[in-house]
Here is the input.
Amino acid sequence: MAVSNNTIKWVRSLALKKNRDKERCFVAEGTKCVLDTIGSFAVESLFCTDEWARLHDVGKAIIVTASQLERMSMLKTPTDVIAVYCMPTYSIDYSAIGETLSLALDNIQDPGNLGTIIRIADWFGIHDIFCSDGTVDVYNPKVVQATMGAISRVRVHYCDLSELFGNLNKDVPVYGTFLDGRNIYEEELGVKGIIVMGNEGKGISAQTEKYVTKRLLIPSYPTGATTSESLNVAMATAIVVSEFRRRMI
Amino acid sequence: MAVSNNTIKWVRSLALKKNRDKERCFVAEGTKCVLDTIGSFAVESLFCTDEWARLHDVGKAIIVTASQLERMSMLKTPTDVIAVYCMPTYSIDYSAIGETLSLALDNIQDPGNLGTIIRIADWFGIHDIFCSDGTVDVYNPKVVQATMGAISRVRVHYCDLSELFGNLNKDVPVYGTFLDGRNIYEEELGVKGIIVMGNEGKGISAQTEKYVTKRLLIPSYPTGATTSESLNVAMATAIVVSEFRRRMI
Here is the structure.
């Protein structure tokens, strides 16, 4: 079985962001996740069991034992295949931002939330997500897993959001949800602009809030009832993006 | 410190559904979760550290050490307080179902999804959720945690869904989402009825599908684009319920 201990350690090291950033590589695990993504990223290495290789035709694979895979894996349940991909490089096209709908994420912390938001973006045809540098890493294995393949169709950029908003044309609307915003169901919503979603506990930061030009609210029902303090950020994203798309379908 | 090993084991045993069902008790852990729920359920026992008791006025508490709490806890991170609650008993009021909007869950498996769906129901003023017997237990500690207190405002019933639908008045609509359903944004939606959400992988079961009178679809955008196979069930619930409520606000 042609894999050294050093290779196993190297794959395992990609659990940490600092190592992913240094190596410019990330990991996808499990049959579904690998098959959903393998056509979309350059493959650095593909490790799988003999049996997996016989069942799937995915080009050059490195055959390893189940126990070697287990040592590489970041998941609790054993897997038959691990792909190491090269990170793509995306550049920000400011003129394109003005023509379409995008998302900006202001310090989203939970990997499951980021993964789910990428799925929502994919479903509703949003191709660019701009993350503040403090947002959880999209190449975190839990995020990759949670996107269910949507990571291969949505470009996720990391940047200084103030710089991003500062560089926008003045006529590009920036939407954000706030408890004192205006009822999203009744507001006029455009077909272009950036929708900002805030941190799980703190919402949109004061720094980012300065750039928001349209303050929205998802009203609870009935008005004034005692209810949860807020919706989970991924839920709120689903509802807000659905509201934009509804008017365009 | 007035707590025996048997008590610690008993609390810990409530991690399992069969023990919760036998004891008719469930657990809430952590300051936020306990404070959000303590007014809503009968308290069987409240275990906390000396310091927590000094900071919070929640009635009779059993003071324990941090290490005892750790032994009771089902969470990875240590907690200062664990409440054991008596399970409430709800009965199904068929005439009330016909007057309002409710949810039915057909074999939802993931505790996080159920918790999130309960939050959505709470936000949008849905007071009853009918779960198939195969749906994950609402008193699973992960579900209790994920509801962020919403569990105290939404009644979650477990029942045979076929029996539930069979007992409904014929004029109560049953909504479900299907890939061949009709565009939810364009359909007429009532102010009453039951919205069925299906299992994470399999969707709505054939058994339940027979009772669905309105087949809906959340269309992806743009029409016909390659996108994820489906939205996560909690996302879909958020979008569907928002669509019903939008028309009532």
About this structure: Chain A has two domains: 5-86, 94-246. The first strand of chain A starts at residue 25 and ends at 29. The longest helix of chain A spans residues 233-246.
